[in-house]
Amino acid sequence: MAVLIWYNQNMVIWLQLIVLVLEIVALLLIIFIFVSGIHSVMAGAPFVPMKKSVIKNLLVFGELKAGDVFYDLGSGDGRVLRTASEFNVKIAKGYEIAHWPYLMSVYLNRKKKMKNVEIKHGNSFNADLSDADFIYLYLFPPLVDKLAGKIEKEARAGAKILCPAFSVDTNKHPRFKLKKEAKFDTMATYLYEVI
Question: What DSSP state is assigned to residue 47?
Fold first, then answer.
C-alpha cells in the first residue's frame, strides 16, 4: 500500500512538472508572438492577414500570369505567395521582417511542398526588384509611399503593382500609372503599371 501511495505522489509531481513546462512554453510563445508584432508595427505595418477567399480574386484582377516573377513585400505568413504559385509563376518571392509570420510562412511552405516560393526574413528595402513582373503591396500608406520610390528606381517598365487598401500618390511617383481600381470585400484595390 505504501508503494502505491508513493507511486501516486510521484505521478502527481511529474504531472505537475509537465503542466508547468507546458505553461512556460505557452507563455514564451505568446511573448515571442507579441514581440514579433511590436517589431512589425515599428517597421511600418502590422501583420494583418488577407482573407484567403479574396486573394485569388485580387491576383486575377491584377492580371497575374504564368511565368511572372512575383514579389510580396511584407509577405506575412506567405498565403499570397502560395496563391500566386497556383498561377504557375516563375517564382514567388516574399520578404517579411517580423519573426512570427516569417516562421509560419516557412513552416507552411514546407508543409505544402512549395517549390517555386521563396521567403526571406528581412526588410523589403533589401529586395532587388529589377526582375519583378508583379509586386504586391498590402502595407500602410507611409510604407507604400517609401517602397513606391524604391520600385520607381528599380522596377522595369511594364511591371505591375497591386495595392489593396491603400493607393500610391501618382503625382509624387510619376512612373506609376493607374491601370484600374475595384473593390474586393469592401476594400479598394489599385493596380498600377510602371511606365
Answer: -
